[in-house]
Amino acid sequence: MSTKIRYLTAGESHGQALVVILEGIPSGLKLTKEWIDKELRRRQIGYGRGERMKIEKDEVRIISGVRLGKTLGSPVSFLIPNLDWKNWEKIMGADEVENKDVPAFTRPRPGHADLVGGIKYNFLDLRNVLERASARETAARVAAGAVCKKLLHEFNIKTFSRTVQIGREKDATAREEAIESYERIEKSPVRCLNFFTERKMIELIDEVKRRGDTVGGIFEVIFLGLPPGLGSYIQWDLKLDARLAFSLMSIQAIVGVEIGAGFEASSSFGSEVQDEIAYNETRGFYRLSNRAGGIEGGMTTGEPLVLRVAMKPISTLAKPLRSVDIVSKKEVAATKERSDVCAVPAASVIGEAVCAIEIAKAMREKFGGDSLEEMRKNYLSYMEYVRAR
Ligand code: EPS
Fold first, then answer.
1. pLDDT tens digit string along 257-285?
2. Domains, the chain, ordered by start
3. What pTM does this model have?
4. Can you say how many angstroms the Cα of residue 287 is from the centroid of all Cα atoms in its chain?
5. Which residues are CB-neighbours of 206 under 8 A, at least 6 positions away?
6. Which of 58, 134, 311 has the most ligand 1 atoms within 8 A of CB, as the residue to mutate?
């Protein structure tokens, strides 16, 4: 049994299924297929998604690691079948076929992995690249994230995410309000709290779609109830802020991560940025503000963890940009694949999932234990110590 959480995904976008193996979850955690499927559904929803989401109804098949509704401490693995596979069997099958039966994809899309992936792996059919580079893979990460989220719930750690910007349309509502009215965000087709901005975002997505273009944005991920001291300052690769940024940057099309005041802090003075420290009997040590976004010295402070994540517009355009055919070397329009116009709302759910994995990993490092019960005892004893400080 390992207390180290690690996971791997496999699967092509139009292959048979996505696969994920997640190790390091303690035994005794209640887990149902419904819980994971609910998270997968959240990832599929969102205004601006493409036709593929009408075909798929993502559901996990639990293959291992769970028995009679509880985890065993052994690797948890899932299969998420691709319903579109039936339309792609001939093109994506594992068996050798005559080349002429499978048209090659030779016109790389600017901004996608197509061109460099093809050069790097020596492919003349760029489908070999795009199938794995596709954001479809994130369904597997959301399944792993759902398990970690369930583990975090056992320790009263709550996760939230929302869209705060699509294109130039910004939602400036306060974070506290967003948490209080979270039901509204969950129901919003763009995961935006403000009704007025939501309308504007939807109109923008419609307009962008009409133009054959795509649009990106910014989403926010929030965690409440974290104990102080997750992650560590003692080594570069233990710092939790760095680890969260790594995980978030690994999501397709993510181009920036900001923690707390982030970039704004760089143009303010120290006296305006640092969070002053206070103490009282009931709360113990706390901060008078949270511009650090819940992390100092690579460790959680116990204040809300707040991350903002920038997503570039998706690179598959209905009105394609200029490219070069990799075989003829002639200027051509890039390939036009079915795709999303805007996937920021879905990305916010994926962001929540990858952060949940990283935080669960830090919780396992800190509190260990082979069973949930043992982990909880260690957690409670640490929290008692923290309160007595
Ligand atoms: C996705 C499935 C894909 C795309 C999208 C994400 O399905 P298809 O390629 O069949 O339309 O909709 O992938 C991309 C944006 C991309 O660039 O590859 C999903 O399940 O999230």
1. 999 999 999 999 999 999 999 999 988 99
2. 6-388 (3.60.150.10)
3. 0.97
4. 28
5. none
6. 134
